[in-house]
Amino acid sequence: MHPQHDDNEIQVYETTELYGEKGRFRVLQFSGDAIQGALDLEQPKRVVFEYPRAMIHLMEYNRPLFQDVFLIGHGIGTIAGYFAEKRFKVAEVNEEVVRYSRSHFGYTQDNVLIGDGRSLLEAERDGQYDYILLDAFTAAGTPQHLISSGFFGLTRSKLHSGGSILMNLMGKSENDRLMGAVHTTLSEHYPYVEAFALPAEGAADVRNILLMGSGRPVRYQARQLAGFVPVTLGQGHVIRD
User: Fold this and answer.
1) Those residues with Cβ within 8 angstroms of residue 43's Cβ, 6 or more apart along the chain or in another chain
2) What transmembrane ranges does the database entry give (predicted)?
């Protein structure tokens, strides 16, 4: 399969090696940027990457009977597809991404809204959700209006009292000013905040960092976190709109 391009330079391609793992994979990638999703063609139901596996564990372990989830950032639909029996509402700003998730990655659900995640979340009923998930990236990183105090206040109002926000971010686990700022800003709105990261070779390595904010203590089983470990993020400034 040849890479397919369009105005946004989204590529779909197949490869026999992905991050050192041999096999047959189909990949969705924004040009020159991080991979947005991968499908194991030999085990299509398998969740390939560690970060969605860790997010799935945190969701199941903290609220086993959850039903309602608002997800910002669709990718190939990994998490919403995994929890097909739950009620997901997915916000995705790029229509092409959704089209490819259906045509090349087997996404079948009819629950994706096209548009800005924050604006779409504002229109939802207060107190409705068990989880709000954020997995939204541009080449410049996570859009600022999705990590601001105003946004986190909005998420708290759309979750019920036992609900949680769970975010996949990219950063360094030490001395990362932006990660410290996101952590500090999130802590203004949620009494319990935990951060998890994959161990890296050096402190300067950028990797996936998961942040979870909740009205109650965040629980996890270390061996179920797909290699993620708890990390302590520094303090930072509060991010305003």
Assistant:
1) none
2) none
